[in-house]
Design goal:
Organism: Punica granatum
Strand content: 15-25%
CATH class: Alpha Beta
Protein name: rRNA methyltransferase 2, mitochondrial
Helix content: 25-40%
CATH architecture: 3-Layer(aba) Sandwich
Pfam families: FtsJ (PF01728)
GO molecular function, one term: rRNA (uridine-2'-O-)-methyltransferase activity
Distance between the termini: 47 Å
CATH superfamily: Vaccinia Virus protein VP39
Largest sheet: 7 strands, mixed
Shape: globular
Keywords: Methyltransferase, rRNA processing, S-adenosyl-L-methionine, Transferase
CATH topology: Rossmann fold
Length: about 230
C-alpha cells in the first residue's frame, strides 16, 4: 500500500508475482545491482518476517542442484513461503541478538558460516525521529556484530559483552552484508566503522521504499581478513 492507503505499483506486483510483501523488490534491486547472492551461497536473513527476502534469496541461489541454503531468524514464527522457496529454506524462531554466534554458525552448511548476511530488522518506532534513528543505529550495530564479531567494535570492546570464545562473526571472509538503517547523522559514522572491514561499502535507497520512509540500506561487500 502507499502512504495514502491506495495499492501502489510494488504492492500490486508483489501480489501478481507471488511475493509475500513488496519488500521483495528492495532486495531484488540490490541483488540486480551488486550480485551479492551467488549460486550455492549460504544466506542468513536476520528479521526475516514476513518472508519476502527469503523468497528472493532462494531464487538467487540458482537451481536446487547447485546447493546453497537460506536461514531466516525472527522473533516471530515465520512460515516458509510456498512460492519461490524450496527445501533449501528454513526459519528459526528466536532472538538472534541473544544467540551465541557459534550457535548461529551451526545453522550454516558444514557450520562454516554464511556468504551473505541480510538484516532488514527495524526497531519498534516511537514516532520521535531522533530516538528512532538512534534505535535503528543501535540495532544495526548489533547486526554488524553478529556478522563480523568483535571487529565491529575494534579495540573499544572491553570484553564484558562478548564471550572470548565467540569473537568471530558468522560472515565468511569475502562475504557481503546488508543492513537497514534510518537516515540520520549517525549513519555516516556507521559507514566509517564498516569501511575498514570491507573492500567496498555503498548506500542505496531502493525504489520500492515508501516515500514517507527514512530507511536506507548499507551494502558492504567482500569482508576482509583481519590482520
Amino acid at each position: 500500500m502507499s502512504g495514502a492507503g491506495v495499492p501502489d505499483f510494488f504492492y500490486r506486483e508483489a501480489l501478481r508475482l507471488g511475493y509475500v510483501a513488496r519488500s521483495a523488490f528492495k532486495l531484488l534491486q540490490m541483488q540486480n545491482k551488486h550480485k551479492l547472492i551467488t549460486r550455492g551461497s549460504a544466506v542468513l536473513d536476520l528479521g526475516c518476517a514476513p518472508g519476502a527476502w527469503l523468497q528472493v534469496a532462494c531464487q538467487s541461489l540458482g537451481p536446487l542442484k547447485d546447493g546453497g541454503s537460506v536461514v531466516g531468524i525472527d522473533l516471530k514464527k515465520v512460515k516458509v513461503p510456498s512460492t519461490h522457496c524450496d527445501s533449501r529454506v528454513r526459519t528459526v524462531c528466536a532472538d538472534v541478538l541473544n544467540l551465541p554466534k557459534q550457535q548461529i554458525k551451526t545453522l550454516s552448511p558444514q557450520q562454516k558460516g554464511f556468504k551473505v548476511v541480510l538484516s532488514d530488522m527495524c526497531p519498534l518506532v516511537s514516532g520521535v525521529p531522533t530516538r528512532d534513528a538512534a534505535l535503528s543505529t543501535e540495532l544495526g550495530m548489533r547486526a554488524l556484530g553478529v556478522a563480523v564479531g568483535r571487529a565491529a567494535w575494534g579495540d573499544a570492546v572491553d570484553g564484558s559483552s562478548e564471550d572470548s570464545n565467540d569473537d568471530d562473526g558468522v560472515l565468511q571472509i569475502g562475504g557481503s552484508l546488508i543492513i537497514k538503517l534510518l537516515e540520520s547523522e549517525d549513519v555516516r559514522e556507521f559507514n566509517q566503522i564498516c569501511k575498514p572491514l570491507f573492500r567496498k561499502t555503498s548506500w542505496l535507497r531502493p525504489k520500492a521504499t515508501r516515500p514517507s520512509s527514512r530507511e536506507i540500506y548499507l551494502i558492504c561487500q567482500d569482508l576482509q581478513r583481519r590482520t
